[in-house]
Amino acid sequence: MQIVGYETGVGSDGDPGPAGLLVAAGDGAVDRIDLSPGRELAYDLGDRHCAGTIHDGAHIACAEPAAPYCASHRDVWVCARCTGTCLKEEMDCHDPHAVYLAAFAPDRFKVGVTRLWRLETRLREQGADRGAHVRTVDNGRIAREIEAGLAADVAELVDRVRVPTKRSGLAATVDADAWERLLDRFDVTERFAFEYGLDLSDRPMAETMLTGRAIGTKGRLLVLERAGSTYAVDLRDLVGYEVAERRSERDIQSSLGAFGG
């Protein structure tokens, strides 16, 4: 069984739901490991290789050693690199787009763009603590131009917040004064504040594992409790691993007893 993808647990309407890992067996069938809060997980990670692809609901395996994806299966989204000059053969982002600001605790602020109807979903997918809708424009090209300009001209803004930075702020709260000072410079259409139910007093340790009690997810970070400590796992770092469900101590003892008899 191989981990071949993940779901952050955010619906198209922006409402939160249970996150999950997509796993595939050798026959191509795709199943799901539920990551709902309180779920006890006990999986051992084995070898890691390319996660292949999922086509029409079936998994197509790939044995290439590159992980999580080899060059043939790596999905390069050119729109993420756009700054207003379309990198596709034909521009296809003609629907209304939102320019937004996102806050990540304690004091990292990001400018981004998304299709207007996906705004709340996009903020939750990233694990933002707060968000603000500051512009609506006719298409993605204009939105990317504005995004690039704000990232270059506003010292407090970046256009990307990496996972280690998000992980470091898991037990922190947003600097509300700094956030409000930033928003005072914009004509804010709508504000968002998100709760993820993690309730952490200390910063979790970075780890790649799938054993422990799920506390919750924030973006693509899964927080686990194990032996009295908390760990933050990047779901993308799990993609490509072969996994096997760990046997409980009771099962092991029962098997040993049967063998000894």
How far apart are the termini?
A: 32 Å
What gross morphology would you assign?
globular
Structural class: alpha+beta
How many extended strands?
16
Give the low-confidence spans: 249-261
Over all CA atoms, what is the radius of gyration? Answer: 21 Å
Largest sheet data = 6 strands, mixed
Number of helices: 6
Percent range for helical residues?
Answer: 10-25%
* Mean of residue pLDDT values: 88
Give the amount of beta strand, in percent. Answer: 25-35%
* Series of H and E elements: EEEEEEEEHEHEHHEEEEEHEH
What's the structural domain tally?
2
Question: Main sheet: which strands, in order across?
Answer: 12-15-14-13-4-16
Organism: Halopenitus persicus
Pfam family, one: DUF2797
Protein name: DUF2797 domain-containing protein
InterPro entries: DUF2797 (IPR021246)
Essential attributes:
alpha+beta, disordered C terminus, DUF2797, 261 residues, DUF2797 domain-containing protein
Describe this structure in words.
- By secondary structure, the chain is of the alpha+beta class.
- It has two domains: 2-69 and 198-260, no CATH class; 78-193, no CATH class.
- It is built from six helices and 16 strands.
- The protein has helices at 119-126, 140-153, 163-168, 176-183, 235-238, 249-260; strands at 2-7, 20-24, 30-34, 40-48, 53-55, 58-60, 97-104, 108-115, 130-137, 157-158, 190-193, 205-206, 210-218, 221-226, 229-234, 241-245.
- The strands form four sheets. Strands 12-15-14-13-4-16 form a six-stranded mixed beta sheet. Strands 10-8-7-9-11 form a five-stranded mixed beta sheet. It has a three-stranded antiparallel beta sheet with strand order 1-2-3.
- The longest helix is centred in the middle third of the chain and has 14 residues, at 140-153.
- Residues 249-261 have low confidence and may be disordered.
